[in-house]
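Example record

One chain of 196 residues, shown exactly as stored in the release files.
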Amino acid sequence: SQLGNAMGFAASAASLAGKGVFETTSALSVLSTQIGADKSGRALRSIFASMAKPTSEAQAQLDALGLSFMDSYKNIKPLATTVDEFGAALAGMPAGEQMRILNTVFDKQTASAFGGLMAAGGEELRRVEGDLQGAGGFAADAAETQLDNVTGAFTKVKSAMSGLAIDVFQTIKGPLQSGLESLAEVIGGPLTEGFS
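Predicted structure tokens for this chain:
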């Protein structure tokens, strides 16, 4: 399904950002209506990445507006809260200035997606999340499984790469050590003889 594909793109970034299944799924659902299901996963992944580590330029803009993606405990704020805070901070500004600010805080494509979330509003994100929590059952299980599968697959890849590195090193360790010792003898012999 399109939601499953979108979740596949967003799940690892959502997990790293400390976002749960319901918040992630609600954001994907709202983004799907704003920019299309096929783009929502990548867009949400970029939003979470920008929130986790703003560029210095983005941080300066956030500071100028009195905004922060982090709460007092250094956790990323709920997306609905961030959407509401941006909406309040940008209210009354000309549309061009709002876009300039969003393009500074996010990259251009991500700014457009975040603008879509702002158009929907934090209340809509909360409503959809509440509906998902109320529904429970299959939708929640499917989303949780998708997150688990992506996170699990990522962990398996990291483990496999680590194992590969160890296997490669074990295979070349002997010849590498022998080659380095021979090189040391070749280089060391003439050098030490020249100084004695």
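Notes: The radius of gyration is 25 Å.
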